[in-house]
Design goal:
The protein is mostly beta strands. Helix content is 2%, strand content 23%.
Length: 185
């Protein structure tokens, strides 16, 4: 399917096509689905619900999510080829990105509480005004990542790659958690 606006479709009752190119999805329901072998290329999802969905070999090429609910969504088995994602004003709590190559991914004004980024590559990624409460960064590459406006993160500098990553001085406490250093006001 190409250059279509797809609105208010409940994909738990409608089958997904094999390939979407330059399509806009608005207020669609894709919750608790297995999204398998679908190609989304240069697509935008606005106010869609993907909660608890699992991805199996689906391709996300230059895909933007705006105002989407993606609680518990599992991206880990996405097609790794040409993966390019952007998230704006999304709820991504409990989402899984374990071991994924997310270089240059932009997360803006999004709730990323309890997200798993273990073993992920987030080089050059940006977390703009995002809540990272209880998010897992374990053996994660955060080189050149921008976390200057992110909040509530806890990142162990000994277990993650942080070369040239950017942090606000007000967030430095999140880099010292788990190191045994005490911060006194």
């Amino acid at each position: 399917m190409e250059n279509k606006k797809i609105e208010k479709i409940d994909f738990t009752h409608e089958a997904l096509e094999e390939h979407y190119y330059q399509c806009e999805f608005a207020k669609c329901y894709l919750s608790d689905m297995k999204i398998s072998k679908v190609i989304f290329e240069e697509c935008t999802f606005k106010e869609c619900n993907f909660s608890l969905s699992k991805v199996h070999a689906a391709s996300w090429q230059n895909v933007v999510f705006e105002g989407c609910k993606m609680t518990g969504m599992d991206f880990t088995n996405s097609n790794k080829f040409s993966l390019s994602l952007e998230f704006n004003d999304c709820i991504l709590s409990y989402a899984l990105f374990t071991g994924m190559n997310l270089k240059g991914t932009r997360f803006s004004n999004s709730d990323l509480q309890n997200v798993d980024f273990a073993d992920a590559d987030l080089t050059n990624s940006a977390f703009v005004n995002c809540d990272l409460t209880s998010t897992t960064f374990q053996h994660t590459n955060l080189e050149k990542a921008d976390l200057t406006s992110a909040r509530n993160y806890s990142i162990n500098p000994f277990n993650n790659r942080l070369k040239k990553a950017r942090f606000s001085r007000y967030g430095l406490e999140g880099l010292l958690a788990g190191t045994g250093v005490e911060i006194i006001d």
